[in-house]
Every structure is written in C-alpha cells, then in structure tokens.
Amino acid sequence: MKQHIADLIQQAIDALKTVGEFDADLVATIQIDNTRDKQHGDLACNIALTLAKATRRKPRDIAELICNHIPTSDSVTKTEIAGPGFINFFISQDATQAVIARVLKEAEQFGRNNSGSGHKVQVEFVSANPTGPLHVGHGRGAAYGASVSNLLEAAGYEVEREYYVNDAGRQMNILAASVWLRYLQQAGEEIVFPSNGYQGDYVNDIAQQLHAQVGSRLQRDAAAVMAGLHADAPEGDKEKHIDDLVERAQNLLGKSDYRLMFDAGLDSIRDDIKQDLHGFGVDFEQWFSERSLDHGDQINRAITKLQEQGHVYEDGGALWFRSTEFGDDKDRVVKRDNGQTTYFASDIAYHLNKFERGMDTVINVWGADHHGYIIRVKAALQALGINPARLVVKLVQFAILYRGAERVQMSTRSGSFVTLRELREEVGKDASRFFYVTRKSEQHMDFDLDLAKSESKDNPVYYIQYAHARICTLIRKLAEKNMAWNSEIGLQQLEKLNEETEIALMQQIELYPEVITSAANNHEPHQVAHYLKDLASNFHSYYNAHRMVIDDAKLRNARMCLCMAACQVMANGLSLLGVDAPEQM
Question: Rounded to an integer, what distance in angstroms lies between the CA atom of residue 110 and that of residue 309?
Fold first, then answer.
C-alpha cells in the first residue's frame, strides 16, 4: 500500500510539472510513513515539506496542489492536509482487507521479496576459538548471525553462512598442551597442572579418550616434562610457564605425535561446537580452517600483493603494513623478525580469500571487543584494491546471564562458565533464540533466565507462540463441532470484518513485508521480534473481544480467514528468527 500511495504522489508531481507548476527537473524523494493516530489517517507523507525549498512555495500550498492532482484510487477514501503540510491518507476497508487473501495465497512466501536477487553475501559469525564449549555469550552472536542470514535470504540474497575455525596460533597450542598434561595425569605421571592451562572438565574428557585410543604412545617422564621451566604463578610468570610447556610438548613429542595430540583437542571441541549449534538451530555451509591459509601459502601471497602496491615496509627485521595511510592510528606488523606471520596477516589473507570466492558483500559478526580491529581490516582491503564498504562488521555485545540477582561469571580458561547447551536445556532453544535478538546487537543485554522460562504474557516468545497455538486450537474446535473453516466462504465475506480490533489486526498484518525489508536491509532482526510481539498483542485483543466459534457461518469463516492470516504471519516471522511455531501448548 505504501508503494501505491508513493506512485499516486509521483503521478501528481508529474502532472504538476506538465502544467508548469513545478520545474521539469524537480526530483522528489517520497517517503510514506504510518500514522501514530488513526484518527489522522492510515498513512502520511511529508513530501510538501521536503519540496518547499526547491519550489520556493509554502508547504501547505504544495500539499494542496498535490492533493488536487492525485489520481482517483479505490484504495484511498480521502486525503487530508495536517500541520505545516503533511498529507494524510485514509485507506479503504476493501484495500485493508485485501491483505488477508494475499497472505492465505502466498502462505510461507508472504513477506519475502527479490530485492537482493543476484547479490552474493557471506555472513561469518560465531567463529569462537575451538578451545572449549560455546558459552551463553557466544549464543547471542549465533542467534543474531543466523537470523540476519535468514532475513537476507528472505530478501532474495544468495547467502553463505561461514564459521572461521581459529585452528592455529597460541591459544590452540595452549589447549594442546593442556590436553597432553591431563593425558599424562591419566597415565599416572605426577604433573602439576599450570594455572594458565585450560581447566575445564572437557579437557579431562578429551585426554581420557586420547589415552584410551593411543595407550602410552604419548607418555613422557614427568621430570623430563617439567625440568628447567619458568616458574608458574604466583611466584613466577604464568605466561612464560605455559609457553615453555607448549615448547616442551613439541620437542618431546615430535611433529607427528604433537599433531596427533593437537588434533585430538581440536577435532573433539570443533565437533562438539557443530553439534551444539545444530541443536540451537544454527548450521553453516562453510567451516573455514585458518590452517588452510598457511597450507596454501595464502598469507604470504597476501603480504606480497601489499608489497607490490608499496604498502609494506621493513623495520627492525619485521614487515609492517602502512595502515596509517588508510586511517589507522598506527602501522601493523604482518611478519615478525623471526619470520612468523601475525594473526593480522592471517586475517588479511582470509578476507582476501572471501572476496576472491566471489562475495559481493561480506558481513562479519564480531564481539564488541573487536571494535578496534575494524579499521585495520578495512585498511588492508582498500590497500588490496577492494572497496572497504563491501565489508560490513556488526558488533555484538555478549549477553550477561543472571540467576536471580547473581551474575554468572564466564571464562573458558578457568572452566567456570555456563555453556550454551546448558542454557538451551534449561530454557529451550526457542526462548534462547528469541531473547537474544530482542535488542540491537550492539546494545548491552541482560538475559533474564526466570522470564525466559515463565509462561506469561511478560515472556514475549511464549506470548507469540501461545497466539499461534490458540489459532490452531480454534481449527480443531471447529472441526469437533462440524464447523470446519471454509476459506472460500470467508474470503467472500470480508466486508463483515469492520470491528476496531479486526481492522487493527489487518493493518498490523499488512506491515509485515515492510518490516522484513527493513530488518534485512539494516541487519536488525530485533525489528521482527518487536513486530511479532505487537501482532500477537493485536490478535489476543481481538480473540478476547470476539467469539470465533459462532453459528453465523459467513462471519465465522471471515473471522477465521483473518485468524489464519495472522497465524501464517506469526509462523513466517518466527521461522526467520529460528523459533518454532507450535500448534498446541
């Protein structure tokens, strides 16, 4: 309907150009908004105010000209000029009711569009280091990234979901050393576990499985393991101590056995993450290994490309990227003086790889602590000749979980954390997925565990699912009374739907495609969550005010058509958020 009104206004402006009231080269940007007070119409436009300067006329005079030249439309009953020059449009009842037939015809496709057709987008999200199970903080990024991906697909984009597996670097080596030390304890060696090792029970589990598979193959004498290491905290330096243990493991095990032990930790945790995310309703088309960049020499290739463009220089034996030339606060090392490339170099190669795979746009969903990293990655892309605007970074604040008034601390290193799986088992996938996307990704979020489990209208996901189930229950009740819903009869009697709550529900349903478009374009799934809550509220108000199981077949079927349209839209919206639409509760 908004597009229809915009077309009418454009036709009026074109007519005014023809008669000489407006200059022929006048460009009008037409925006149609919903009115806050339905007494002032259903839709409003501020075009008269925006054209005042260009036409050198008063806004109200412009509004009168436009209203006098708007073509007649069966969808518009009248127009009014309000305030300084707003044009308000009153939509006909027939036009409002038309959305019901459209929803019932399009079903699951209602609200989808092809605006992104032919555009390939990669959404990379979660990408947590495979050093331990996912915790509730990771869950918000998972829910957000998955919902954004679904929304983009609903807008016609070709979407690839990717998880970047950080299977290289210091943290993975610390995990490997932690697994090995627990393995040695399983084998009977007297080993003091390092304070900076990974403490979680999952490390013990991996070590136990490894010991069962390889026996004593990886066993080494405790004295040889611990000899000559830097002292651990609190007397010594815990970072130097753990780095010494990593080096000792590599030396004592050799390349082959160290890789065996390294992969035991990596494979176990990565597989656990895959299973955990699948249970959360999140799956990826691509699991991209950081190690594959090194194996394909992609990191050095990316550095060479930067060198060829004059964006890399040597200083102190290290290679530096001139990121200050692209707005960064300092230049960045890409290769250390010992010849090892940096994590930043890996990230440059990874992003180059993404665009070389044919992505038109790349969306990275990062934790808020990565804010300072954005400018340097965009700088590298620009230096490589890739428009940095093609990289969109969405920052996600970690959700903070509360049990009562007590905040739960989370740390994968200490092993004291609430896993995503534990959260899902306690409050369910649906509540978790929905709660995570009720606010903008960059906003702080407290996860109210008690509210998520409650069965009340204060719990938004329960409130919406209950509305959907209520309608499904109506269908069953009608069947029990031999009053099965007849959509054909109902669609012929929509003029009977003239109650205030019925009109409000129809108008809310009509907003859905607009909400999906806006949510997809702005990467804001919270818009859908809020819309669904409003839709459920309108339905519950309608349901509580009017009986549906009545003898009047024409009115009954018309009302059921409206209910079923609302039911379909709820299911469509919940699906985009990864939430089920139950038929009974």
Answer: 49
Q: Which ranges of 280-373 does DSSP label H, i.e. alpha helix?
A: 290-295, 298-308, 343-356
pLDDT of 406 over the 80 cut:
no
66 in Cβ contact with 72 (< 8 Å): no
Joined tokens for residue 568: 């379909």
- Indicate the DSSP class of residue 330: S
Number of H helices, E strands in the chain: 23, 15
DSSP 113-144: --TTTT-EEEEE-----TTS--BHHHHHHHHH
- 495-507 per-position pLDDT tens digit: 999 999 999 999 9
For residue 178, the cross-strand partners are none
CA 220 to chain centre: 47
The span from the CA of 453 to the CA of 459, in Å, is 8
* Assigned architecture for domain 120-163+283-396: 3-Layer(aba) Sandwich (3.40)
Full-model pTM: 0.90
Mean pLDDT value of segment 178-196: 96
- Its CATH architecture, for the domain 460-576, is Orthogonal Bundle (1.10)
- Give Cβ neighbours of residue 211 (< 8 Å, ≥ 6 apart): 183, 186, 187
